[in-house]
């Protein structure tokens, strides 16, 4: 039943096999055995697509309910005796994983040694349901309105540079030489993101035109630490450098844009004790950071053709 549900959700035997960590032949055999047992055809197959039969659609609804009930029952029993176990698939943006999540994960492993956590670091988010992802971290938008999203972190951008450069900068950010500014390249775009600064009614837009630009906050911060120029990144990525003095915040009296991170999961994962344990752990990790207001609205954008 679990294999059939995953095939139906993924729309593909091969993607279902990948998300379940099974061989393609095993997935095909499971579905055929299920159809033989029920004496009906659940999935019509051709070379281009899969389509559930009327019986398959009915069985999918009932199977989901049964599997979720079984999973809740198993995890309730395990949680009562302190034995949370099984596989947990996490997806997070690369820079956020490097800055916060990955350094904290050994503590999660010590707390729950029976949970096998697989982490995918990616700036190209995958579809949560199709890839069998239990928990994903998204920034500002999610890929499907049917997902459950909870705000977990809200941060603002920090304008910063190496200590040696601070004394050479003008007092007003609008006078900052754009050729001394290094920035972030959005995915699949050639031009860097502008910086938007605000103080009262005054607004300043800075478009970096320096010698270096990156699509990675990690690379950008390494260049800034070596004196390559002034940069502007989310506080969560630069907090440790500000703390150890390798980078210094400039123009702190100016407000910057705010970004919200969300912990995202499929509705079927909400009752999972493993997912709850990991979500609670995430809130602990972010506890020292700026917390979300709780009133933000989550944007939804499609992934690929979806």
Beta-strand share of residues = 15-25%
Computed CA radius of gyration, to the nearest angstrom = 23 Å
How many β-strand stretches? Answer: 16
Order of helices and strands: HHHEEHEHEEEEHEEEEHEHEEEHE
The oligomerization state is single chain
CATH architecture tag of the largest domain = 3-Layer(aba) Sandwich
Average pLDDT, rounded to a whole number, is 86
CATH class of the largest domain: Alpha Beta
Largest sheet: 7 strands, mixed
What would the principal axes of the Cα set say about the shape? elongated
Distance separating the two termini:
25 Å
- Unreliable parts: 291-296
Structural account:
This protein has helices at 2-10, 13-20, 24-38, 54-80, 94-111, 163-166, 217-225, 235-244, 273-285; strands at 43-45, 50-52, 86-92, 115-121, 135-139, 141-142, 148-161, 183-184, 195-199, 202-206, 213-214, 231-234, 248-249, 255-256, 258-265, 299-300. It has 3 domains: 2-79, Orthogonal Bundle (Arc Repressor Mutant, subunit A); 82-152 and 260-300, D-Maltodextrin-Binding Protein, domain 2 (3-Layer(aba) Sandwich), CATH 3.40.190; 155-258, D-Maltodextrin-Binding Protein, domain 2 (3-Layer(aba) Sandwich). Mean pLDDT is 86; it is low at 291-296. The strands form 5 sheets. Strands 3, 4, 5, 7, 12, 13 and 15 form a 7-stranded mixed β-sheet that branches. With 306 residues, the chain is an alpha/beta fold. The chain is built from 9 helices and 16 strands. Strand 1 (43-45) and strand 2 form a beta hairpin. Helix 1 packs across helix 2 (13-20) and helix 5 (94-111) crosses helix 9.
């Amino acid at each position: 039943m679990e294999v059939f549900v995953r095939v139906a959700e993924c729309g593909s035997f091969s993607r279902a096999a990948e998300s379940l960590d099974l061989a393609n032949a095993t997935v095909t055999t499971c579905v055929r055995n299920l159809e033989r047992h029920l004496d009906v055809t659940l999935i019509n197959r051709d070379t281009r697509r899969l389509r559930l039969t009327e019986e398959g659609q009915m069985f999918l609804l009932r199977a989901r309910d049964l599997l979720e009930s079984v999973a809740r029952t198993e995890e309730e029993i395990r949680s009562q005796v302190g034995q949370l176990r099984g596989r947990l698939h996490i997806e997070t943006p690369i820079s956020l994983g490097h800055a916060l999540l990955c350094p904290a994960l050994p503590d999660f492993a010590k707390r729950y040694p029976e949970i096998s956590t697989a982490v995918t670091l990616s700036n190209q988010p995958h579809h949560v349901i199709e890839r069998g992802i239990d928990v994903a971290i998204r920034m500002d938008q999610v890929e499907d309105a049917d997902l459950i999203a909870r705000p977990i972190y809200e941060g603002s951008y920090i304008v910063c540079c190496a200590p040696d450069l601070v004394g050479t900068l003008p007092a007003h950010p609008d006078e900052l030489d754009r050729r001394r500014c290094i920035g972030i390249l959005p995915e699949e775009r050639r031009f860097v993101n502008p910086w938007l600064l605000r103080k009262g009614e005054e607004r300043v837009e800075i478009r970096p035109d320096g010698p270096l630009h990156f699509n990675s906050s990690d690379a950008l911060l390494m260049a800034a630490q070596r004196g390559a120029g002034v940069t502007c990144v989310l506080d969560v990525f630069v907090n440790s450098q500000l703390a150890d003095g390798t980078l210094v915040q400039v123009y702190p009296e100016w407000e910057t844009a705010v970004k919200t991170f969300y912990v995202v999961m499929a509705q079927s994962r909400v009752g999972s004790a493993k997912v709850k344990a990991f979500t609670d752990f995430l809130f602990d990790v972010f506890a020292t950071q700026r917390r979300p207001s709780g009133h933000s609205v989550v944007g939804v954008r499609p992934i690929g053709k979806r």
